[in-house]
Amino acid sequence: MFFSRMTPSPRLAALALGFVMIGAAPSSLLGQDEFQITGRVVDQVTGEPLQYAVVGVPGLQSWDLTDENGVFILDRIQAGVFRFVAVRRGFYYADQDVRFSGPIEIQVDMTPEEDANPVGPGNVQGRIRDQESGRGVEGATVTLAPTDQETTTNSQGRFSFTDVSQGALLLTVRQVGYQPRSDTLVSLPGMTLDVELTMAAAAITLEPIQVVARSPFLEARGFYRRARTTNGYQANRQMIDEAAPTGDLTRLFRTIPGVSVERDRFGGIVLQNRRRNCNLGTWLDGMRMPGMDISTYPPEAVEAMEIYLEPSTPMQYSNNCGALLIWSRRPGGEEFRNRAANERR
Predict the structure, then answer these.
(1) CATH 2.60.120.40 fits 209-328, yes or no
(2) CATH architecture observed for domain 122-199
(3) Model-level pTM greater than 0.85?
(4) How confident is the prediction along the chain (345 residues), in pLDDT tens digits per residue?
(5) Which fold has domain 10-110?
(6) Alpha-carbon span 206 to 259, nearest angstrom
(7) What residue ranges do the domains of the chain occupy?
(8) How far are the Cα atoms of 47, 48, 60, 193 from residue 65, in angstroms, in the given order?
């Protein structure tokens, strides 16, 4: 018995199919009430074995590709009536409902297609849904291998391919926020495969989020507002540590345009407005500190600093030259305690 020439008509396919039990197929590690089907696919005209034929029982998800001798092995077959399919490029496909009751060995004779009566290519269409909500997944990338066909799903999660060649295909779906998945399909000539599958959400590592803890002390004294609205130089604790890792604030001051680090007539360190050649006034926690030697204030005690040159100096700290505002650290309220957090969704 054999598969003879098959056409897309299910009725004709049923008339053309037959089997013979040549012998019990060797058993493998199968479950209870499961057995193996083995067989061989040959060219009906020449009798030569056909390699790369796709043979399977779709209802049991059992598939195999014939080797150079045309041999195939199908595992985990169960008793009952199931659809049996054999497909190979250049030959009419075989498609028949078959009753299986135990291990058998099948020979499938496939007839070459006639150029004057081609069956034509197949189609693949389907829908991608979210595994949890059931809603369509929009914008997913769907590819077919080994072809170079690619498309994206619409707002309902639907997609389609036309002019699909027959044989085994690998359908791959990818979308941001979901685990990619790949599934093997068998395309039949002149037939349309309707596919529906789901995608599970995947964890995504996002860019680190910078979290800033603001000091209530500085908030109340307008530090953050001036940093947004006033021309000048503002340095928080992190910037101070980066610019003056050894604790030398004069190193930080020397990087600020328009000011220079000088000694006053008493030998103390002050900041000078280069353009006006005058010394900046100094404020510590909002209090004016005339003649303060800034080198005597411990750098590790500084929470933030502001430097303004006239005419951009805030009114409450204004003088004829400019202002240096030093804000000291407060226990339990340190400014800019930064942390990077990777959020996973």
Answers:
(1) no
(2) Sandwich (2.60)
(3) no
(4) 344 333 333 322 322 333 333 334 444 445 568 899 999 999 988 999 998 788 888 888 888 888 899 999 999 899 999 988 888 877 877 778 888 898 988 899 888 876 434 556 778 888 999 988 999 999 999 999 888 899 999 999 999 998 887 777 888 999 988 999 988 877 776 677 888 889 998 876 656 655 556 777 888 888 888 887 778 888 888 788 877 676 677 778 888 888 998 888 878 888 889 888 888 989 888 888 887 888 777 777 888 889 998 888 888 887 788 999 988 876 544 433 333 333 333
(5) Immunoglobulin-like (2.60.40)
(6) 41
(7) 10-110, 122-199, 209-328
(8) 18, 16, 16, 20
CA distance 91 to 286: 91
As a whole number of angstroms, the distance between CA 150 and CA 172 comes to: 10
Is 10-110's fold the same as 209-328's?
A: no
Query: Which two structure tokens, joined as six digits, stand for 295?
Result: 């080198």
